[in-house]
Amino acid sequence: MNAYSLKYEKHIGRILSMHSGINTGLVVTGNVDFYKGTHGIAGAPLNIASRLCSLAKPGEILVGSETYRQSLGYFNFHSLDPVKVKGVDSPVQNEYHQ
Prior knowledge:
About 30% of the residues lie in helices and about 15% in strands. The protein contains three helices and six strands; from the N terminus they run H-E-E-E-H-E-H-E-E. The protein starts with a helix and ends with a strand.
């Protein structure tokens, strides 16, 4: 993303950056309709991934505890303090990968 930002920054007048939230868990899937914009996925893991994405700073990827557990050894992570997120009763443990 940094390479794209350098390439387009002058043209668009702002820095390009990305951030992401990834979470693992059981979800319910349904019909996907790209034309209507429905994604057909529901469940707490999706909500938590969205909240982690909102908390991530530019260049950060925040992952939930199960994603962390399953990918440990493949990526370098830094532990963060659990955070309270909307729609979840207890604080969410999250890890940071850059």
